Amino acid sequence: MLQAAIRAPEGNPAGLAFLYRRQFELCKVQRGETIALVSDLTTRREYIQAAFAAADELGADVYEMCVNSVPSWTKVGVPTIGKCKGTLEAVRAADIIVIFHVPLFTKWLKEVMNGGTRVLMIIDAPDDLDHLMSPKGLKDAVKHAHKRLSQTKKVHVVSDAGTDFTYTCGEYPVMSQWGYADEPGHFDHWGAGHVHTFPNEGTANGTVVFQPGDIIILPYCRYVQDPVRLDIRDGFVTKIDGGLDAKLMRDWLNDNKSSPDDRDPFAVSHLGWGLNPQSLWYGIALNGDEPERSRAAARTFPGNFLFSTGPNSQGGGKRNTRGHYDVPMRDCTVVLDNEVVIEKGRLVDPAMVVEREAR
Ligand SMILES: [Fe+2]
Fold first, then answer.
1. Cα 59 to middle of ligand 1, angstroms
2. CA 196 to centroid of ligand 1, rounded, Å
3. 192: CA distance to ligand 1 center in Å?
4. pLDDT tens digit string along 197-235?
5. Which residue stretches of the chain have pLDDT < 50?
């Protein structure tokens, strides 16, 4: 498999070790802890070197486990750990796993987290790791959003573009990421800053309209060019209307059916919103459409409503389809029970607003 050319970072490559040290400090890496780096053949070698240097500086023990499958960005749920004998036992024994591909929606990840191991995922480009690193106050804001969403029974999302969509929650846990893995059993993604949960089975109903400027971050990493209108009935997308972007969505979801009557790719999946002020909506316009530049940023810019379809096994559900579509939407108003927390794409709950740090 050929790897796409990677643009040279703007920052000093030698600075990566300092950056990793700051990140490991946020993750509360302690002297004598064991860090397992889980890499694959596409992992940037300088990330491994920086992680080794940072671990040494902090007095932690560290090793690299390079696995023999390369989960692509669009195929989540690939079990990179556990097939080779001893690998699951090894990572379970670590205090913190730093993983350089997407482990979400795999069984092994849940097992490891249940044992208390912290998990940090690093899948973004060096400049973005620097720019997106969790700013002061983000964890508190995310924890507040997490609590609010945990107390919520019904969510209503509307937009001037025509979205009018409701779902109830409580069946699945709320999950949140604040950019570092500092608590036992916590999964996080360097650059993150968002909350989400899965709708109760069969309760998502209404209309969702993607408008130009919304982002199809998975699988295409592109801005929506023309409106897409989704009819949603009892938890599933039943109709996709529009132009090119509608065709792209229909074909992706249909091609990922496991059988002609498989509806799982069309199930409404995780729903939530972003809070990281370091994340820029216009990153794709600025930096190009290489996914490595946008994985964290596109999902976490403040006030986006992140709509998705496909798997829910990460939340404890049974769907593990690869028909996964992730769409951060702009300009939506999000109402939790009767309280507006996002108004036309702007966070209005002051406890969710974090100031951007100049970097
Ligand atoms: Fe997703």
1. 35
2. 10
3. 13
4. 999 999 999 999 999 999 999 999 999 999 999 999 999
5. 1-5
- What pLDDT, on a 0 to 100 scale, did the predictor assign at position 84? 86
If you measure from the C-alpha of residue 7 to the centroid of ligand 1, how many angstroms do you get, rounded to a whole number?
25
Encode 124-163: b = buried (16+ Cβ within 10 Å), e = exposed: bbbbbbbbbbbbebbbebbebbbebbeebeebbbbbebeb
Residue spans per domain, the chain = 13-123, 134-352
Q: What is the pLDDT of residues 231-262, one digit of tens each?
A: 999 999 999 999 999 999 999 999 999 999 99
Separation of CA 53 and ligand 1 centre (Å): 32
Which architecture characterizes domain 13-123 according to CATH? 3-Layer(aba) Sandwich (3.40)
d(CA 189, CA 124): 9
User: What residues flank ion ligand 1 with Cβ within 5 A?
Assistant: 308, 326
Gyration radius (Cα) of the chain, Å: 20
